[in-house]
Amino acid sequence: MDSLSGVSEELAEIEGQISDIFRALSNGFQKLEKIKDSNRQSRQLEELAAKMRECKRLIKEFDRESKDLEYKNDSGTNKMLSEKKQSMIKELNSYVALKKQYTSNLDNKRVNLFEGPGEGFAEENVLLASDMTNQQLMDQGNQMMDETDQAIERSKKVVHETIDVGTETATALKAQTEQMSRIVNELDSIHFSIKKASQLVKEIGRLQLIGALWLCFSLLWSVS
């Protein structure tokens, strides 16, 4: 860890967390050998699988941080970081293979360590560290990260599409609200016009009544 501290405190911290997980995995498998009850063995394997998933995440984080520092590191430092990552992947794969062996021995339903397609070091593709070349490890790691990036891009696309639909919906609602407002204004205008017309009709009727009364009065006056 001391050599990494000179390169990056964050890399040194990540390596420390990974080392802690590897020690926990080693102790966990030693404890597993002493457990006789199959149910307790299954629970122990689940706990170990969770630690492996966390370790996988940290190795990916280590790789991303290493790549971010490539431009400022010399070739020797970059080579050291690459070898460090490959060593961690080999050790993790050896524990994955060991878990697979224990799971098989328990004759349980096989549990995928990393769920979903393209989610890392799938157990069926794990090789023992002694059987894997550095190129195989690099190819495997790159494929895993490419698939993760693709999944992130798909998620971003869904978010953008959701935002677009929400914007279109808001625009349509605004247009409908403005249309309803115009209709209400027109109804108010119509109501006012009807009210004025009603008043006018009443006024005309009143004038006609007065005229009729005046005519009757005039006739009566002339007769008398």
TrEMBL record:
It is found in: Membrane. Residues 38-65 form a coiled coil. GO terms for biological process: protein transport; vesicle fusion. InterPro entries: NPSN/SNAP25-like_N_SNARE, T_SNARE_dom. It comes from the Eukaryota. Residues 142-204 form the T-SNARE coiled-coil homology domain. It is a single-pass type IV membrane protein. Its main location: membrane. GO terms for molecular function: SNAP receptor activity; SNARE binding. PROSITE patterns: T_SNARE (PS50192). GO terms for cellular component: endoplasmic reticulum membrane; ER to Golgi transport vesicle membrane; Golgi apparatus; late endosome membrane; SNARE complex. CDD domains: SNARE_SNAP25N_23N_29N_SEC9N. Keywords: Coiled coil, Membrane, Protein transport, Transmembrane, Transmembrane helix, Transport. Belongs to the novel plant SNARE family. This is Novel plant SNARE 11. The lineage of its organism: Eukaryota, Viridiplantae, Streptophyta, Embryophyta, Tracheophyta.
